[in-house]
């Protein structure tokens, strides 16, 4: 394969695929954050902790209950989502009508408490989780060898993000959710339980973070710090895409994963900050984000 800017094309294509893997997690997590902010107007700093919780519950399901990976894909998002719904019902709901800073501080404190609890219970060292047998092996693409499991992560993430976008943007349920945030009194007049809808929305988005945690368990070490190391990047993705923009969160997450991967080829020392450089440029040129609405 020919060189591109002095770099073998095979290396570039390989980094694009590796970037898509990271971008898949950025997209899924930023999707949940964007929905929570757009529908509940809450900056959910605990989202990374729910992602970590999903990975740990996946590991516990295997080691303590004997549930395999495929069962965890169904069970874990439900468990994490129910926990999130309880948090919303007991705590977050009380903060909606006061300054948004309080909900940010609460979710930030919740993230620290969850991370500290898991660090106390399981230690700081990572826990390994095996790749399921049905997803072992590799695809030989000519320019790189792609593990089957990583290809599955990309496919599953894109499909879930697309499905959620279709539900939120193209169905009556999505229209009700948007209306409930803009004019709750009118929606209530139609017999819709708005508080329950908001609770389920928060629980669903937290469940998405739990689903991402299941996907991440066989790739990364399951550790208490795995969420805090990712949440700052995910917030940057949401800001770049536009706060509350669902499609923007998905496209920006995948795109920034690729940009980050390519930066490792051309300027490796900048790969850790390239997303934040992009965020600064976007905030200067378009403060509402690439896909956000200007006020």
Descriptive notes:
This protein has one domain. The protein contains 11 helices and 4 strands. It is globular. The protein starts with a strand and ends in a 10-residue tail after the last helix.
The multimeric state of the shown protein is single chain
Strand residue content: under 5%
Record the strand order, biggest sheet: 1-2
What would the average pLDDT be, to the nearest integer? 87
How many DSSP H or I helices?
11
Number of strands: 4
Helical content (DSSP H or I, runs of 4+): 55-70%
Largest beta-sheet details? 2 strands, antiparallel
> What is the total number of structural domains?
1
Determine the structural class based on helices, strands and strand pairing.
mainly alpha
User: What is the string of SSEs from the N terminus onward?
Assistant: EEHHHHEEHHHHHHH
Q: Based on CA inertia axes, which overall geometry fits?
A: globular
Which residue ranges are poorly predicted, with pLDDT under 50 across at least 5 consecutive positions?
none
**End-to-end Cα distance:** 48 Å
Radius of gyration: 19 Å
